[in-house]
Request: fold
Amino acid sequence: MQQRRRHLIHTAALAAAVGLIGLPAAAQGTWPTGKPISYVVPFAAGGTTDTLGRLIGQQLGTALGTTVVVENKGGAAGSIGSEAAARAAPDGYTLLGGTVSSHAINVSLYPKLGYDPIKSFSPVTLIGTNPVVLVVSANSPHKTLKDVLAAAKGKEGGLSSASAGTGSSQHLAVELMAYKSGVKFTHIPYKGSGPAIQDVISGQVDMMFDTTVVAAPHIQSGKLRAIAVTSPKRLASMPDVPTVAESGVNGLADFQVQSWQAIFVPASTPAPIISRLHDEIRKILAQPDMQNRLKGFGMEPADLNTTQIAAFQKAEVEKWAQVIKAANIKVD
Reply:
């Protein structure tokens, strides 16, 4: 009788073990289970954030043994898609491609933002930074930053400066310049960088801060003159162009403006999942081909841990809050 009971217990235990092996990974508490991961891009298809999402997503899916699906949810400078991602379950199945707009600027720009860029998310990876460059028409008399500032001081309302729109990084760069130098400029907003930079080339607008991705081809063709870059040091792609800090202008020694790309997950996502994502994405970004792609976008690759990313983001939020308040910039 006892032998039969032991046999039954052994059989039941074996059946349970076999059944456990056959259960989905989720039932065993592992991640990922093979369920598709959503990579939310809070901008339209075709832009830098979208392109990076697709490049990274494809390789990340292979590394994790699942599929990463890019979902474009554009609008309000990245706010609509970011709000949707913030409300997603913190289970590792939602990633967000965040930028300086969605995760540093918008919180001070939009009065009814549906998420907190810091409290609603946890950082995973800082993909890279993209400095902007101050440009003027090739026919402009201005050749240095001191020339630009002197001309702005001598003109009522200051020199005109184009941007891709109110609240864009191009707009805030000139407002930061005004805030730190005490020199006024007249902001001319456009619906995108394309038409804005064309009017700078033609001389209809005096100047513009724009990303190196957009401005570099026009600089190389001789249509634009690069005055200064907003990075901490000179760019390898523009070694002859000084930084703003090198200009020697009072108040601009620490002047920096960087557009940046990062990956976030909803707040409260388990730390082991964030760590795995960080490690896998870091491996992808370290590949020589990916490094070349980033540099092709005019980006400086970054390699920060999650604590460093959080500190970087917090500093960006605080910096742009000061600029937006000082310039009294408002978006309805």
The longest helix spans residues 306-327. The radius of gyration is 24 Å. The chain is about 45% helix and 20% strand.
